[in-house]
Amino acid sequence: MSAELTSLVTSLAQRARAASLALATVPTAAKNAALARLADLIDASHAALLAANARDLASPEAAALSASSRDRLTLTTARLNHLAVSVREVITLPDPVGDLLEETTRPNGLHIRKVRVPIGVVGIIYEARPNVTVDCAILCLKSGNASILRGGKECFHTNTALAALITAALTAAGLPADAVQLIPTTDRAALNALLKLDSLIHCIIPRGGESLIRFVAENSTIPVIKHFQGVCFVYVDAAADLAMAEAITVNAKASRPSACNAAEQLLIHVSVAEKFFPAVAGALIANNVQLRCDSASLAILAASDLSALNSQVSASSIAPATPADYTTEFLDTIIAVRVVDSLEAAIATINRDSSNHSDAIVTADESAARRFLAAVDSATVYWNASTRFTDGFEFGYGAEIGISTDRLHARGPMGLRELCTYKFLIEGTGQTRS
Amino acid sequence: MSAELTSLVTSLAQRARAASLALATVPTAAKNAALARLADLIDASHAALLAANARDLASPEAAALSASSRDRLTLTTARLNHLAVSVREVITLPDPVGDLLEETTRPNGLHIRKVRVPIGVVGIIYEARPNVTVDCAILCLKSGNASILRGGKECFHTNTALAALITAALTAAGLPADAVQLIPTTDRAALNALLKLDSLIHCIIPRGGESLIRFVAENSTIPVIKHFQGVCFVYVDAAADLAMAEAITVNAKASRPSACNAAEQLLIHVSVAEKFFPAVAGALIANNVQLRCDSASLAILAASDLSALNSQVSASSIAPATPADYTTEFLDTIIAVRVVDSLEAAIATINRDSSNHSDAIVTADESAARRFLAAVDSATVYWNASTRFTDGFEFGYGAEIGISTDRLHARGPMGLRELCTYKFLIEGTGQTRS
Description:
By secondary structure, the first copy, chain A, is of the alpha/beta class. Chain A has helices at about 1-25, 30-45, 45-55, 60-65, 65-75, 75-90, 130-140, 155-170, 190-195, 210-220, 240-255, 270-285, 295-305, 305-310, 345-355, 365-375; strands at about 100-105, 110-120, 120-125, 145-150, 180, 205, 230-235, 265-270, 290-295, 320, 335-340, 360, 380-385, 400-405, 410-415, 420-430. Helices cover about 45% and strands about 20% of the residues of chain A. The interface between A and B is large, with 68 and 68 residues.
């Protein structure tokens, strides 16, 4: 059985590799034609897609999902309309392939151009989210990459129906049907075999929870770009505008607690803690956020009139933090709070405890801000803005395939350009090396 | 024992991580001061370095090395002089850290800068080559990365002596001594433990033979940038200038057969094969190159007057190729030869059999050249020049840490810039996300 699965994924990867070579040189118009056709096919296929999705939702696997996972699995007419819109938006994005990155003529006359080209074959490993099937397929297609998709088993029928539309769109536009392939099984052994095909697949992007990403990173011999957790910090400096700090803290934590760019950690400079913390605590509690406090911040709340903070204050609104809270990605309405003695202590704490995703300082002191921006070793470092802006759309990239928490290749939001590599084109007149 | 080694490399990696945070923001002058001091220390320490090297060369491990490996392990006064020169050359290279890569102001007023920053902690795994110890340490230092070095056991005493000079140079320049660390054991278990420290080490670069690189790639949970083999092609097109084609073929094969950018494979368009192949065969044989021929090229030689080719022709100069020869990195005075029917057949052959390192077309037909440049999926694609130019110095990068055969992060020659990642610095005025 395992040998059969290995043979199945190997054959699929070989077809993907062949398709990638063809796709690397097709004109933008052909790729856009396939995208336009796909959007039309999605519009015309609501009944079939909703039926496939209903079959998934009725399965025992789907019954075992959490309410939020089940919600992400569910398609509706409105969501299908949105999906078609997102496909049409990718048509409008510039094609990154062929961009001239550098150009030089060497003293020996060699003319060297460094140009952007597709990576080749990209494997996307994700959970039970049908929108990821389409998002990843279209971003890989537009950037000239063949993709191999392996979604969660709870979503298998929906993905199969979507993949059929993608294949039809590719064929209609004269592109290789193998440019986007869904692995036709959710057997874990097939995934394991896939992750070893390093001569055929050039990059693996896992999208999902920590255990999925760890499994992929530990079992893949193919380079992996991880989209891992965000343990993001807001540091309120001694020189912060406290009203701005409150607005940024509440936005970073409460505007979408399930996002990886949401703040999980609040650091407050000791000199403003007594004034700032009771006010922001009230605002956070008003947004149903639970505070997990160090002893210093807890003491400040104890000394203030808690009931004056907010009528919603309850026993569960405020709790002492455990050591684990200081490095936890809650993805929930919880924030851990610490008082720090200095800017340098804040920087050291962030560099030790954050996931190097998105961290912010609020301060009116430019030199403190410059030091923070330089010394905090994270993909995205903010001065006087919410961490929630770490996002491909907010950066002006258009769609994103994710937010890389790795340092190699792509760091932070990954758009079409980050789905490319480069090659050197060198033109001579017969040069040989002495 | 294994737990002890794990503890040893973990502690070493923690110190490297701390050093990397300090090193990321030090001024260029401090890094250059450390480099200058190191060059002076090398100049002043010939006796001690040669003594350590003699101890290595006298070991049973060194006795087991091949003649060429033993040569690479050996230090001489001339080589130490060259080593000091190479350190001083890195002083003259521009510091890549802080380069502004992109800058934009979003409609909401957020000012986004993408700036080049060090990767962090880089692990270099290599064989018994003392020059690699110094080359990698200084390139990592200049690019602001802390490095962890693990060289071959045959070179342990030499590496230890060199590492002591590096530590002294760092300390003299006021930089953290832990910025460059040699693993103080060559036990394989220590390497295995190191390759799992993905929360402390950000990148592994293996330099050496295929088995070392495969071991590292298969056992590392840290992202790896491979510097793998070069199965490089020269394709002589129907419209080639045959004198140029001969010069390029001989240079690509024979100027340094042990280099990864040396040609291992020759493809000849059928329309010029009868005229071109006997001539180039004579020139290659005159350079002691053995030809491993497909049936078509063998038939051409059989029909020509072999002894007229070259007086050195012997039975061993020409042999029928085996299938394996067509994908082999000989690293020796051997070249495999095939006749192809068309440009497209040449492109397909290269995309199937090459290692995507460096491949060349020789032709006077611009449209054939443009098609070849676009369709050959290799890091470096040449038109009318030798593959031997794939090299950091030849590209104008100054020193290189290697030639990446991966597609992610760095492809082709890796200089100081490729030892960096980037981060986003975002300045606002209190922006929150709706």
